[in-house]
């Protein structure tokens, strides 16, 4: 690897280290022991806060300034993506270079609103936590709400900035790597807790072997599908081939089975966790029962997760794969798909192929996100490390490795173009 690639990797690791340091900075005025006792309960380790805790690398358990993680930004992005798909002017703004800056600015403002709402909800939830009247809060409620809003808002803005810096200066997608590092950092404690239960006899060795086999099978299934693609052959006119005989012309169009990547499970999780967090903050027993009913350890949550993952898979695939642009580029370069008329015929063919692949890709994402949870739940696993977590970890790792390889090949091409053969 060249020095430039090594520097990018080091910059990425440095920013991820800064993210992990932020996870240990608590919000002032909170009794951490009360919160830790809350998370020691088996019933509370798999609710909405438990899911937040896993994604943030136990930042919620410490009630750090990044307790909300990057989820407010993801929620704001979901809202803006849906609005862009509904309103043509907003979609046009997103495609333009100057308009994209305005679009991202709106996303940031909306992230602030979502963060403030969730910070207030978490404050009321902390008040109702524990046996004492003030819960986990050691100062007056009004002051704590103001402190928590500013603390969590600062933490979320810092995470957004770290994510943008990783994307621009480092390797890989910054937001995905932040979620990735949060999940990975919680794996050692989950393994330790599992072996602790094995030693006490609460889980036997056969169940442990079954859990390991399920995780290994899930990882291999994700890798197999993520590397799978449909290659549509492309032919070029003889004149174009002669003009570019010293250049490599791709003679196929690769269409991945999973066009939407890791976005659908992340979007679905953020959309399901947001209302649950607000409902948990209420002192009304009915609203609390609804929040518990929608917990990640319940069947309703996983049914909704299954459906939302399919929806977002189709939604994001329609954004990521633009068959009209591909057809126009082929026509402009003198290429065509054998047996298909250039223009509208090519667009319809590409849409039909992408639609069939997205059907299988969306079902694969939905099954990976929910089926391992059902299997693991039946074995009595004490930690939430289901299909969504495994999916995010494996997909982000594959995507990051591909980007590192792309950087290596790009540096080789630059070297060859400078010194020749």
From TrEMBL:
Keyword tags: Cell membrane, Membrane, Protein transport, Translocation, Transmembrane, Transmembrane helix, Transport
Provide one Gene Ontology cellular component.
plasma membrane
Q: Report which superkingdom the organism of origin falls in.
A: Bacteria
A Pfam family that the UniProt record links to this protein: SecY
Task: Please give the InterPro entries that the UniProt record associates with this protein.
Answer: SecY, SecY/SEC61-alpha, SecY_CS, SecY_dom_sf
Chain ranges passing through the membrane: 63-85, 106-126, 141-162, 174-191, 203-225, 257-279, 299-321, 357-375, 381-398
Q: Name one GO biological process term.
A: protein transport by the Sec complex
Q: Which Gene3D superfamilies match?
A: SecY subunit domain
Q: Where in the cell is it found?
A: Cell membrane; Membrane
Mode of membrane association: Multi-pass membrane protein
Family the entry assigns: Belongs to the SecY/SEC61-alpha family.
Cross-referenced PANTHER family = SECY/SEC61-ALPHA FAMILY MEMBER (PTHR10906)
Report the function annotation for this chain: The central subunit of the protein translocation channel SecYEG. Consists of two halves formed by TMs 1-5 and 6-10. These two domains form a lateral gate at the front which open onto the bilayer between TMs 2 and 7, and are clamped together by SecE at the back. The channel is closed by both a pore ring composed of hydrophobic SecY resides and a short helix (helix 2A) on the extracellular side of the membrane which forms a plug. The plug probably moves laterally to allow the channel to open. The ring and the pore may move independently.
* Assembly information from the UniProt record: Component of the Sec protein translocase complex. Heterotrimer consisting of SecY, SecE and SecG subunits. The heterotrimers can form oligomers, although 1 heterotrimer is thought to be able to translocate proteins. Interacts with the ribosome. Interacts with SecDF, and other proteins may be involved. Interacts with SecA.
> What is the protein name stated in its UniProt record?
Protein translocase subunit SecY
Tell me the name of the encoding gene. secY
């Amino acid at each position: 690897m060249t020095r430039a690639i090594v520097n990018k990797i080091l910059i990425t690791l440095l920013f991820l280290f800064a993210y992990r340091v932020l996870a240990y900075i608590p919000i002032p005025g909170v009794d951490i022991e009360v919160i830790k006792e809350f998370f020691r309960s088996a019933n509370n380790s798999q609710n909405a806060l438990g899911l937040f805790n896993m994604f943030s690398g136990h930042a919620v358990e410490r009630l750090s300034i990044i307790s909300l993680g990057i989820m407010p930004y993801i929620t704001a992005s979901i809202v803006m993506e849906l609005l862009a798909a509904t309103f043509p002017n907003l979609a046009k703004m997103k495609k333009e270079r100057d308009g994209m800056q305005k679009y991202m600015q709106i996303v940031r403002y909306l992230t602030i609103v979502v963060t403030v709402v969730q910070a207030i909800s978490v404050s009321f939830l902390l008040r109702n936590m524990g046996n004492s009247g003030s819960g986990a809060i050691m100062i007056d409620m009004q002051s704590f709400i103001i402190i928590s809003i500013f603390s969590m808002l600062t933490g979320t803005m810092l995470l957004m900035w770290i994510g943008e810096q990783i994307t621009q200066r480092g390797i890989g997608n910054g937001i995905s790597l932040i979620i990735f590092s949060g999940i990975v950092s919680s794996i050692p404690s989950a393994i330790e807790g599992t072996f602790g239960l094995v030693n006490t006899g609460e889980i036997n060795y056969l169940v442990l072997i079954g859990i390991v086999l399920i995780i290994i099978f899930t990882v291999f299934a994700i890798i197999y599908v993520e590397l799978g693609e449909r290659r549509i052959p492309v032919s070029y006119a003889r004149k174009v081939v002669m003009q570019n005989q010293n250049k490599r012309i791709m003679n196929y169009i690769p269409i991945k089975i999973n066009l939407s990547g890791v976005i659908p499970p992340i979007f679905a999780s953020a959309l399901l966790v947001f209302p649950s967090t607000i409902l948990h903050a209420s002192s009304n027993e009915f609203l609390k029962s609804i929040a518990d009913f929608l917990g990640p350890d319940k069947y309703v949550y996983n049914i909704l997760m299954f459906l939302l993952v399919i929806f977002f898979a189709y939604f994001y695939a329609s954004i990521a794969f633009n068959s009209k642009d591909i057809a126009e580029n082929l026509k402009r370069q003198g290429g065509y798909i054998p047996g298909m008329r250039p223009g509208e015929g090519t667009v319809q063919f590409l849409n039909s192929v992408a639609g069939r692949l997205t059907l299988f890709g969306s079902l694969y994402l939905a099954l990976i996100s929910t089926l391992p949870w059902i299997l693991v739940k039946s074995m009595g696993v004490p930690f939430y490390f289901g299909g969504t977590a495994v999916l995010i970890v494996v997909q982000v790792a594959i995507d990051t490795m591909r980007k590192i390889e792309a950087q290596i090949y790009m540096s080789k091409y630059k070297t060859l173009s400078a010194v020749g053969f």
